Amino acid sequence: MRWNLPFLSSGSLFPANAIAVDLGTANTLVYVKGEGIVLNEPSVVAMDRETKKIKGVGLEAKRMLGRTPEGITAVRPMKDGVIADFDVTEKMLRYFLELIIEKHVFRVKPRVIVCVPSGITEVEKRAVRDSALGAGAKEVFMVAEPMAAAIGVGLPVETPTGNMVIDIGGGTTEIAVIALSGIVSDTSIRTGGDEIDTSIVQFMRSVYNLLIGEPTAEMIKIQVGSAAPMGEEREMEVKGRDLVSGIPKTVRVHSAEIRDAMQQPIQQIVDAVRRALEITPPELASDIVDRGIVMTGGGALIRGLDVLLTQETGLPIHVDEDPLTCVVRGTGRILDDEEKYWSVLST
């Protein structure tokens, strides 16, 4: 359901206690109207296996990944951009919202906008809505992540000019062509930073017989990972457990090896961009030739990905200065200028 403009005539849809939430696979960010981003934490929850009592949320819980004793488990309740564990997601969201509400002393329950993947199903939407309501929201609105990202980088989404955005998150890659405050064509694949981490874990296991965890794989991706040759190659030491002897060992990996290990998920992203361009209406495609493509999300930080996409498409790729916060910044702009952006919301 989309809102019609007359609904706004009775007063502000989003008063001072409105909150925007980017509920991501990797990180959850919260924006409070008039104040900006007030929370940026990993989407991880540590809990007791038997009592289900929360032992840690966010960064505190992420530090426990792969390190917990038998009675405690650290889980990521979001998978592929959507809710994988409803109960844990609600507890995580409740914890974050209670932190914000307590800090800002809201007298009434806040209205909340939640960013969701453009390819989300109605069942998944209902799970997001119920989680936010259960966590203490008065009303819940939703906005597609590519739309929020486009608004966040300052693209004129309300004009007839075509704007193309690639938002690469932890669980999904969203590619959308936007014009007149709507998504004209979009391609969403459930491949993102997590898939790249998994490919590095599998590479270390098959080539070096070394077992590593996801946090180590993420560190390898950040330090030596790349999507295309960048001239200067890098090396780093990786510590893990030898699968043959069972004892810890250290190996040295080269950036060229990691680039090959990352090739499959990176190619899936490239193929998705090609498909998105193929279904773009001709008039909007000509705008994209002139304006280029904007890349946002944590995946935009992978070295050489913009170079690779430029080589594959022949189009200029622009990476935002702070790609990790584009989506929540865009949602914040919706809160601050609701009359301009009212049509991008749904319930």
Blueprint (SSEs and pairs):
Elements lengths: L18 E5 L3 E6 L3 E7 L2 E4 L5 E4 L1 H4 L9 E4 L2 E2 L2 E2 L2 H19 L6 E6 L5 H13 L4 E6 H8 L10 E6 L4 E7 L2 E8 L3 H16 L1 E2 L2 H11 L10 E8 L5 E7 H7 L1 H16 L3 H10 L1 E4 L8 H9 L3 E3 L6 H11 L1 H4 L6
Parallel strand pairs: 1-9, 9-10, 11-17, 17-18
Antiparallel strand pairs: 1-2, 2-3, 4-5, 4-6, 7-8, 11-12, 12-13, 14-15, 15-16
Task: Describe the overall structure.
With 347 residues, this protein is of the alpha+beta class. It has 3 domains: 5-148 and 326-344, ATPase, nucleotide binding domain (Nucleotidyltransferase, domain 5), CATH 3.30.420; 155-191 and 264-323, Nucleotidyltransferase, domain 5, CATH 3.30.420; 195-262, Alpha-Beta Complex (Actin, Chain A, domain 4). It has helices spanning 59-62, 86-104, 122-134, 145-152, 193-208, 214-224, 255-261, 263-278, 282-291, 305-313, 326-336, 338-341, and strands at 19-23, 27-32, 36-42, 45-48, 54-57, 72-75, 78-79, 82-83, 111-116, 139-144, 163-168, 173-179, 182-189, 210-211, 235-242, 248-254, 293-296, 317-319. A hairpin with a 2-residue loop joins strand 12 and strand 13 (182-189). Helix 2 (86-104) crosses helix 3 and helix 5 packs across helix 6 (214-224). The chain is flat, with a radius of gyration of 21 Å.
